[in-house]
Amino acid sequence: MRILEELSTREKIMKFLRENRGEFFSVDEIISILGIDLKPRDVYNHLAHIAKTIRRRSNGQEVLVMSYPRCRKCGYIFKSIDKPKKPSRCPRCGSEWIEPPRFSIIVSK
Fold first, then answer.
1. What average pLDDT score do residues 57-74 get?
2. Domains (ranges, CATH) in the chain?
3. 4 vs 9, 14, 32, CA distance in Å?
C-alpha cells in the first residue's frame, strides 16, 4: 500500500474514515486531523464522490453515512438535504448557529 503522502485527498479521507469506522467526524475535524489544505466546500464535494466509490467498490457492503445538520437554537433537523453540505441558515428560526453534518463509514447489513 502506498504511504499517506502518495495518496490522493479522497483516498486519505476514505482511509481515515475506514480506520475510524463507526466514529463520526465533521468536515472541519477531517480537515484538521488530516492537515488537508482545502476549503470545507471542496471536502463536501469529495465526500459526495467517496460515498459512490465506497458503495461501488464494496458491492454495497460499506456505506458513507451522514448525521443530519441541526440548528443549535431551535433544534430543527435538516433531513431534506440531498448532498453533503452545511446549511447556512435555519428555515424555521433564521439562526446561523448550525451544527454541521458528521460523517462515518459503516458496514451495511
1. 94
2. 7-107 (1.10.10)
3. 10, 12, 16
